[in-house]
UniProtKB/TrEMBL annotation:
Residues 427-449 are annotated as: Disordered. It comes from the Bacteria. The lineage of its organism: Bacteria, Pseudomonadati, Pseudomonadota, Gammaproteobacteria, Lysobacterales. Residues 33-166 form the GGDEF domain. Residues 175-428 form the EAL domain. Pfam families: EAL, GGDEF. It comes from Lysobacter yangpyeongensis. PROSITE patterns: EAL, GGDEF. This is Bifunctional diguanylate cyclase/phosphodiesterase. NCBIfam families: GGDEF (TIGR00254). SUPFAM superfamilies: EAL domain-like (SSF141868), Nucleotide cyclase (SSF55073).
Length: 449
C-alpha cells in the first residue's frame, strides 16, 4: 500500500499531495468552481536547526503541522511537500478574498510562541497563493504559479503574494470553456495540422512546408491559434500538443509524393520547451516512429528561445542537430538578435519576419534590414526563408537579394492535409498547381503555432 502520510508530521506527503491536487483541480474544472493552493515556507528554518538542534526543528515542524490541521475545513487538505515547505489545497472557495483570509489565519497561528523544550521561538512564514482557474487550470502549472508567487514574496520582503499581475479577483476566466476543453482536444481528434508550402528560389520548386496547428472546438467552431496557443502555454498543455504536432507532421510527410528530396517539414517549438532537457528525447522518439529518408524535419524556434539561457539552449539544440534535424530561427529580426552568438549558433536557417518582408518595397529600413539578414546568414552558412510574400514585386526583390526560400499567400495559403497533398502533384507539363482560394480556417496562414 502506498504511504500517503509524511512520517514526521502526519500530514499528506508530496506524492499524496500531488495526487490530491490533480484530482481537485480536475473537479474544479468540471464544476466551474474556485480552488486555492497555498504554499508556505517556514522562514529561517536552517538557522533554527543550527541554534536549537535538529530535534527542536522536528518539533517545530510538528507544531506547524498541528496549526495547519486545526485551521483547515473538513474539505481541505494539508501537506508537507519539502523540508520546511507546506501546502494547503482549499477547494470550493467563493473568491480570492477567502484565500487571503486563510493565509492571515495561518499567520495568526504562527504568531503564538512555540515552546520546543529548548527555548521559545516565534516562527514566521513566506507564502505564495495561486487560484484555479484564475491563475492556472492544470495542477502542475498551478503549483508552479504558487511557488513563483512565494519566491517573489521572499525576494521583495513581503509575507505573501499572488502570482505577478494577477492579484485581482476576476472570477471565472473569460475563456473558461476553452481552458477546460483544450486539455482533451488532441485526444478527441479536434486538433489538426494545415500546411503552407515553402518554395526555393529562383526556380520556385516546392522544397518543404510549415505545419500549423488548428483547433475545431465543438461549440465555438475554429478557434484562432492566437487565442488557444497562449492558453496552452499558460495551462501547461503546450508540450503535449507539440509532441502531437511533431508526430503528426512526420507521419503526414512520409506519405506525400515529394517534388524535392529531402522534403522539409517544419514544426514550431515554443520557447519554454527549447530549454527542457527531454526535448531531444521527444524528437528522437518521433523520428524513430515516423522518419523516412525522403523527409527532413525542421524545428522552428524563436530568438527568445536562445536568449533565455543561450548555453543550455545551444547544448540541447546541438543534440537535436546531431540527429539530422535542422533548426530554423523564426521571426528573425524582431527579438534579441545578437551578432555575438552567430559563430556558435546551432541553426541552419533564418526566417525573416513578415513585418520586414511586407515593408520591403515601401520602407527603406525594412529593405536594408532584409538585405543585412540575408547577407549575414550567408556569411555564416545559413539559409534564409522569407515569410509573408504576397506579391510578385516583393518576390522579385527577394530574388535579387539572393534569398533562398519564400513562403506566403502569393503561392498558397495554409492548406488542409488533402489539399496540400494535391498541391504537391504536378499539373500539366509539370507546372505547379495553384493553392486553394482560402486557408483551411479562413485566417492568415502565417499565424504560427
Amino acid at each position: 500500500m502506498a504511504i500517503i502520510e509524511d512520517e514526521l508530521t502526519g500530514l499528506h506527503n508530496r506524492r499524496s499531495f500531488l495526487a490530491l491536487l490533480r484530482r481537485h483541480v480536475g473537479l474544479a474544472n468540471e464544476r466551474k468552481s474556485n480552488l486555492a493552493l497555498i504554499v508556505a515556507d517556514i522562514d529561517g528554518f536552517a538557522r533554527l536547526n543550527a541554534t536549537h538542534g535538529y530535534d527542536f526543528g522536528d518539533r517545530a515542524l510538528q507544531h506547524v503541522a498541528t496549526q495547519l490541521r486545526e485551521m483547515i475545513r473538513a474539505q481541505d487538505y494539508a501537506a508537507r511537500i519539502g523540508d520546511n515547505r507546506f501546502a494547503l489545497i482549499l477547494p470550493g472557495l467563493m473568491n480570492a478574498g477567502h484565500a487571503e483570509l486563510a493565509v492571515q489565519k495561518f499567520f495568526r497561528r504562527l504568531d503564538l510562541p512555540f515552546d520546543g523544550g529548548a527555548g521559545r521561538v516565534r516562527m514566521t512564514a513566506t507564502v505564495g497563493v495561486a487560484l484555479c482557474p484564475h491563475h492556472a487550470t492544470q495542477p502542475e502549472f498551478l503549483l508552479s504559479q504558487a511557488e513563483k508567487a512565494l519566491d517573489l514574496a521572499r525576494g521583495t520582503g513581503q509575507r505573501w503574494l499572488f502570482p505577478p499581475d494577477a492579484s485581482d479577483d476576476r472570477g471565472l476566466s473569460e475563456f473558461w470553456d476553452l481552458e477546460i476543453e483544450l486539455g482533451g482536444a488532441v485526444q478527441r481528434g479536434e486538433t489538426f495540422l494545415v500546411y503552407q508550402p515553402k518554395l526555393r528560389l529562383p526556380d520556385l520548386v516546392t522544397v518543404g512546408a510549415e505545419a500549423l496547428m488548428r483547433w475545431q472546438h465543438r461549440s465555438r467552431g475554429l478557434v484562432s491559434p492566437a487565442q488557444f496557443i497562449p492558453i496552452a502555454e499558460q495551462t501547461g498543455q503546450i508540450k503535449t500538443m507539440t509532441i502531437w504536432a511533431l508526430n503528426s507532421a512526420l507521419r503526414h510527410a512520409g506519405e506525400w509524393k515529394h517534388p524535392h528530396v529531402p522534403f522539409g517539414v517544419a514544426v514550431n517549438v515554443p520557447a519554454d520547451l527549447v530549454g527542457q532537457d527531454d526535448l531531444p528525447d521527444l524528437v528522437e522518439n518521433a523520428l524513430s516512429l515516423w522518419s523516412t529518408p525522403d523527409v527532413q524535419l525542421v524545428l522552428e524556434i524563436t530568438e527568445r528561445s536562445l536568449v533565455m539561457d543561450p548555453r543550455h539552449s545551444f547544448r540541447i539544440l546541438s543534440r537535436i542537430r546531431d540527429m539530422g534535424v535542422k533548426i530554423s530561427i523564426d521571426d528573425f529580426g524582431t527579438g534579441y538578435s545578437c551578432l555575438a552568438y552567430f559563430k556558435d549558433i546551432p541553426a541552419d536557417e533564418l526566417k525573416i519576419d513578415k513585418s520586414f518582408v511586407s515593408g520591403l518595397l515601401i520602407d527603406a529600413t525594412c529593405a536594408d534590414i532584409t538585405s543585412l539578414i540575408i547577407d549575414l546568414a550567408h556569411r555564416f552558412g545559413l539559409h534564409v526563408v522569407a515569410e509573408g510574400v504576397e506579391d510578385e514585386e516583393t518576390l522579385e526583390a527577394l530574388r535579387q537579394r539572393n534569398c533562398d526560400v519564400v513562403q506566403g499567400h502569393l503561392f498558397a495559403k495554409a492548406m488542409a492535409l488533402d489539399d496540400f497533398a494535391q498541391w504537391l502533384r504536378p499539373g500539366p507539363n509539370g507546372a505547379l498547381r495553384p493553392g486553394p482560394s482560402g486557408t483551411a480556417d479562413g485566417r492568415n496562414a502565417d499565424d504560427h503555432c
